[in-house]
């Protein structure tokens, strides 16, 4: 591995206004023309860019140039600088340059495999490596391995969460779904800790299919589980308490995305309006969880817990302690405002590379978290349920809510009337989880908690 500052930057000429006096990453200027930054990416016989620079530039460059065009320019520079188009090559020079070129291509294809989905990009790879292969046949073999690994990565990326569902895909319902799909989650899993573990499986599986480039490319151009018996307030309260325990275990695991999904589901109007049900719930633990995810102060409490989780992950002695699944919506918001709050280019037209260092830091941290292997044993019956549980529309949720507790004020009565269904007193009560099923419906995000906070919610 090339250590920071261990190699000098390539001999490039800075144009007027480029801040060569403020070196970042072993010589990369804090702002420079796009041409200069591309030149800094290209290896030579005596120079290789730092790993952090490679990630930062490849991540941010797509705001200014298509990845396919960037690869073409990099390959052209390599051919030109190393005189690889000459009939006779300097084999000693090429043997010094070849490994560095292959290392750059390996890092690029490993971190941003989607950049190589077009056949033209593969042609560029084969062309430039084909020019150095006569100097060492090991280069051709290494290129073959690189392309095999790339093919496997692209194949894996094509099998995202949707393809895992098979034919049992989530369906959105406006009213009660068919009785044939009514199922009791508590009949499948009655242990909050186990459900929290399975939610973590689902979260990590979904996160693995998110590439770092997706955070930036966005800037280049949002179950009803029924039984046959009516559910009483006591049963609904038990279900609410069950999900509170699930949320607590998600916090302890470091799965803040599922935690926020559950809290958001609990606070939705169709659930929060069930006053008679909530009166039977022990809410102390829920209030603590709400406090942890309170948006006050730009989610100050959550950010403190996330920093603790990140630290725990870095010093972890077990895979269990490495889990950090942040609140994903807030992560996207932070990256969005970082992009909107700082210009991509300075008034002189140069790329504001300092901005993209911070962007790369945030995205790089996320990439580290999403690569953690889930340490919990997977229960396929539970994860399949979580993937395929039906989803209610807002009207469907209110319908289930009014079936559980009749409308209390004029606004609710008018809404109930607008649903054009019979008076609720003539309908069977909704099952508890029919209302609460929304709690996990696709609020995806990641998080973690500090070790000193890990079991604070046990009390």
From TrEMBL:
Gene3D superfamilies: Ras guanine-nucleotide exchange factors catalytic domain, Son of sevenless (SoS) protein Chain: S domain 1. Transmembrane segments: none annotated. The keyword Ribosomal protein does not apply. Residues 25-155 form the N-terminal Ras-GEF domain. Residues 191-407 form the Ras-GEF domain. GO terms for cellular component: plasma membrane. One of its GO terms (molecular function) is guanyl-nucleotide exchange factor activity. Pfam families: RasGEF, RasGEF_N. GO terms for biological process: Ras protein signal transduction. Residues 1-22 are annotated as: Disordered. Keywords: Guanine-nucleotide releasing factor. InterPro entries: Ras-like_GEF (IPR008937), Ras-like_Gua-exchang_fac_N (IPR000651), Ras_G-nucl-exch_fac_CS (IPR019804), Ras_GEF_dom_sf (IPR023578), RASGEF_cat_dom (IPR001895), RASGEF_cat_dom_sf (IPR036964). PANTHER family: GUANINE NUCLEOTIDE EXCHANGE FACTOR, RAS-GEF DOMAIN-CONTAINING FAMILY MEMBER 1C. This is Ras-GEF domain-containing family member 1C. It comes from Ovis ammon polii. The lineage of its organism: Eukaryota, Metazoa, Chordata, Craniata, Vertebrata.
